[in-house]
Amino acid sequence: MTGAAPVKTSSRLALAAFAALAATLALACGPEFFEIPIETPIQPKLDVSAFQRVLVAGFVAGGSDDIDANQETVRLLRSQLRTKSQLKVIDADIMSLIAIAQDQRKTAAGEDAPAPTGTPPASTGHGNSPPAAGADPRAQAQPMGLPPQIRDEKDLEPYERLFANVAYWKKIGEEYQNPLIVTGTVLFIPHSITGPVVRDQDVMDQLGRHRVVSTRVYVERKGFILAPKFVFIDGRTGATMYSERHREEILYNAQQNTPALSSYFELMDRIVPDFLSTLSSQKIKGTRVLLK
Amino acid sequence: MAHALLFFWYSGRDPFMTVRLATLFVLVASVAASPAAADARSDAKALVDFGISVAQKGLWREAIYRWEKAVETDPTYAAAYNDLAIAYEHEGQLVKARKAYEKALELEPNNSQIQQNFDLFKEINDRSSTGKDK
Fold it and tell me: Which of A23, A37, A158, A247 could cysteine-pair with A227, CB 3.0–4.6 Å?
C-alpha cells in the first residue's frame, strides 16, 4: 500500500509530460487548415462574341397591376447590362409586345380568310408586320385567342408564338443593325398562403416564473411570385439562340405592407446574376479551406 | 521472415513475452515496410505546404504546379487533391476541379472540410446550367 502513491505520482507526471509534449508539437506544426478567399470565373452560357450591341426590346408582362413589369424589367436589365457587360445597350422605345402579338394575330387571321383583292395586308411598323417568308408556320397559321389581360402562366402561353416569329425578329434586327435581342415574358403575381409557423411565446407558470414556449400557429402570409422567361434572339437571323426560365417568390407577414415595386426589385436581385451570367463572364467570390 | 520465425519460436513459451514480441514484430514490420511511403508523404507534404504559402500570396499558378507535383508524389494524399481542386476552381478550370474534389473525397469520404468545399463548388458550378430551356 505504501508503494502505490509514488507510482501514481510518477504516472501522472509522465502523462502531464506527454500532454505538454503533444501540445508543443501541435503548436510547432501550426494549423492544419487555412481559409482562403477565391474568385471563381464563370464563363458565359451564350457566345455573344458576334455582337457588339444588345437590344432589350420588351416583355410580354402580366400579373399584378401595381407595377408595369414590362417597363421595369426592360429598364432594370438595360441598366445592369450597361454596367456589367461589354455590349453596348441600345436605347430604344420599350416595345409593347402584347399589342404587337395581338396585331400579328389579327394579321394572320386576315391572311387565313379569303382575300377578295388577293393583296396581302400592308406592313405598318413593328406590331403588324410579320413577313410570311421564313416565319414559323405554326406561329402564323394557328391564330389562337390572346387574352388581353395576363393573370397567370396559362394566359402567357399563346404569346410564346411571338418569339418563334423569325421574320419579325429579323426585321427588328435589321432596324437596329443586327444586335443581340433580349425579350421574353414576365409574370409578377400576388401570392398568399396560410401555413404553420413556429413562434416563441412568453408564458408565466403557476409559480409566477416566465418561460418561453414554442408554439405552432397558423398564419397568413402574403407576397409575390416573379417568373420571367428570357429569350435571346440573334438579330441577324431572327432565330432564338437560347432561353431560360426563372421563378422566385417572397412572402411577408399579412400585416406587413410591402410595396409591390420593392418586392419586384428584391426578387429581380436574385435573378439578375443568372441573367448576366448568360451574356458575360462573372466572378463569384467565395471562401474555401486549404488543408495540409 | 527471420522476425516471424523468432516470433513463432518464442510464442509458445511465455504468454507475456508473446504479447511483447508480437508488438515488437508489428512495429518492426511496419517500420521496415513504410520508409518509401513515409518519404513520399513527407515530400508531398512539403510541396503542399509551399503551395499553401504561395496561394496565400495570390500565386495560384505556382500553387497548382506544386500541388500537381504533390499528388504525383503521393497519389493517396487527399489534402493535396483538395487544395489542387480549389486552385483549379479559382482558375476557372471547373472540370479539373470537380475531378480533384471527387478524388479527394474518394480518399477521405468522411472529411467534412473537403465535402464542404465540394458542396460550395457544386453550388457555383451548377448555376451555369440552371433554368435552361435549350
Answer: A247
